[in-house]
Amino acid sequence: MVLDIRLPGLSGLDFQSELARANINIPIIFMTGHGDIPMSVRAMKGGAVDFLTNRFAIRTCWTP
Amino acid sequence: MQPITDRPRELAIRSGQDETRQALVSVTDCGIGIAADDCKSAVQRILHTKVQRPRYGALDLPFNRGSSRGDVCRCPAMRGPGVTSSTGSAPASSGCVMTKGPKSSHETAGAREPIVFVIDDDASVRRALTNLFQSIGLAVEVFGSAPELLHGNTTGCRELHGPRYQVARTERS
């Protein structure tokens, strides 16, 4: 799952928490253009696979 | 291969998407089509061509990941009714579905197919990532927000929600 942080309604981080509470384990890659350290820490501690800032290179997103 | 001398040489290659958003590449020429026995091998030669992308080395994958599974190749290029004979002048039509993977997965993805969820409120990002993942044969489902996914009814949503998720939501509410 490629998940933006800033989303209408429910933020990406809150959605991650929601999935965790529901015991749904799906790999999540966060991406945002407005990331900061607290966000990334929360995301990674919540089990995110990666935390990407927008305008990331394609090779960053996909490495087979 | 015999050269064509009795009619103009024509070759048209078109690409697009069919109704299931599979990439569709059609090749039309003035030949006589491909014999049924040769069809699979002819198409496999195309599908296994490497794409050279020097700027993005990580994407230097086989042309299509789905093709390597051998479950591709809907190929109406075989000889048969509607295809010109060796002396005909009407063009023979050859159509090959190049990929099975690049699809929306809303209706065709099986339970075992990996699905990438893309959740972003920026439509251009959704489109770019969809193209990226589909180009390597992954099924993609896109949503503009988390609630859209939570209340969605796509194949991926149903798999993701599952009974456990419904129970968890009910218990909290």
How would you describe this structure to a colleague?
The complex is a heterodimer of chains A (64) and B (173). Chain A has a single domain, classed as Response regulator (Rossmann fold, 3-Layer(aba) Sandwich), CATH 3.40.50. Chain A contains three helices and three strands, in the order E-H-E-H-E-H. Chain A has helices at 12-21, 37-45, 58-61, and strands at residues 2-4, 29-32, 50-53. Chain A has a three-stranded parallel beta sheet with strand order 1-2-3, with helices on one face. Chain B folds into two domains: 11-97, no CATH class; 115-172. Chain B is 28% helix and 17% strand. In chain B, a hairpin with a 5-residue loop joins strand 1 and strand 2 (23-29). Chains A and B meet through strand 1, helix 1 and helix 3 of A and strand 4, helix 2, helix 3 and helix 4 of B. Strand 1 (2-4) of chain A pairs parallel with strand 4 of chain B, so a sheet runs across the interface.
- Helix vs. strand class of chain A: alpha/beta
CATH superfamily label of chain A: Response regulator
Structural class of chain B: alpha+beta
CATH architecture of chain A: 3-Layer(aba) Sandwich
The backbone outline of chain B, from C-alpha atoms, is elongated
Q: What share of residues of chain A is helical?
A: 25-40%
Query: What is the CATH topology of chain A?
Result: Rossmann fold
Low-confidence stretches of chain B: 51-111
Largest interface: A-B, 28 and 29 residues
Question: What is the distance, rounded to the nearest whole angstrom, between the alpha carbons of the first and last residues of chain A?
Answer: 16 Å
Radius of gyration of chain A: 11 Å
Number of helices of chain A: 3
- What kind of assembly state do the chains in view correspond to? heterodimer
Largest β sheet strand count, sense and barrel closure of chain A: 3 strands, parallel
Mean pLDDT of chain B: 61
Pattern of helices and strands of chain B: EEHEEHEHH
Strand content of chain A: 15-25%
How are the strands of the largest sheet of chain A arranged? 1-2-3
**Overall mean pLDDT score of chain A?**
84
Helix-strand pattern of chain A: EHEHEH
Strand composition percent of chain B: 15-25%
